[in-house]
Write a structure and sequence with these properties.
- The protein has helices spanning about 15-20, 25-35, 35-50, 55-65, 65-80, 95-100, 100-110, 130-140, 150-160; strands at about 115, 125, 165.
- It is mostly helical and about 180 residues long.
- It folds into two domains: about 15-80, no CATH class; about 95-165, no CATH class.
- Helix 8 crosses helix 9 (about 150-160).
- It is elongated, with a radius of gyration of 33 Å.
Length: about 180
């Protein structure tokens, strides 16, 4: 049985050439951007630890990495634990979380003034009340204060989420007159 060497295809670097090879300046940024949360922090910490003393500042300057994130990754790497990122707990809370009865109160106000699609083409309800009017009626009927109730835009979004769509009332149009008779049709 004969063994033969595989043919060299393409250009391969020799070990001496690999030592002198300098990666592109943004290699760390590219690699870190592909990772998320814990894996990213640990990667950053390993790179900084491999670079040695003063490398946190160097990574900050060269790769635009945050030193706080690097330190957090080093703590995770050395301690063998993972900081839990609670992204869902960040940001502004929904209006329903501040006012639990808001959606039910909006429904009660709007249901009196709504109708289904006359052509039955959609399952949406049409209302003649604007978001400003719904907000005003919520203050009057349900004793909300002006400060605690969300703005008109939020009320409009909640109306859309509940399946209501604002449709203006079609104004009556004057009938056309026939010039020969001057009688409206």
């Amino acid at each position: 049985m004969q063994h033969h060497k595989p043919a060299r295809s393409g250009h391969f670097l020799k070990p001496r050439e690999l030592q002198n090879l300098k990666p592109p300046k943004n290699w760390g940024r590219i690699a870190a951007n592909d990772l998320k949360e814990y894996a990213r922090r640990v990667f950053m910490a390993r790179v900084v630890n491999a670079l040695g003393k003063g490398s946190q500042r160097q990574a900050e300057a060269e790769l635009n990495w945050c030193r706080d994130t690097i330190r957090k990754g080093q703590q995770e790497l050395e301690g063998g634990f993972c900081h839990i990122d609670r992204f869902a707990d960040r940001g502004r809370k929904r209006a329903e979380e501040h006012l639990p009865n808001l959606l039910d109160d909006i429904k009660s106000v709007v249901d009196e003034h709504s109708q289904t699609d006359p052509a039955f083409q959609t399952t949406r309800f049409y209302t003649r009340l604007s978001a400003a009017e719904v907000r005003r009626q919520l203050i009057e009927q349900n004793e909300y204060s002006d400060d605690e109730l969300p703005g008109e835009e939020t009320i409009r979004v909640k109306l859309n989420q509940l399946g209501y769509q604002l449709r203006s009332v079609q104004k009556s149009r004057p009938k056309k007159k026939i010039p020969e008779t001057d009688v409206p049709l």
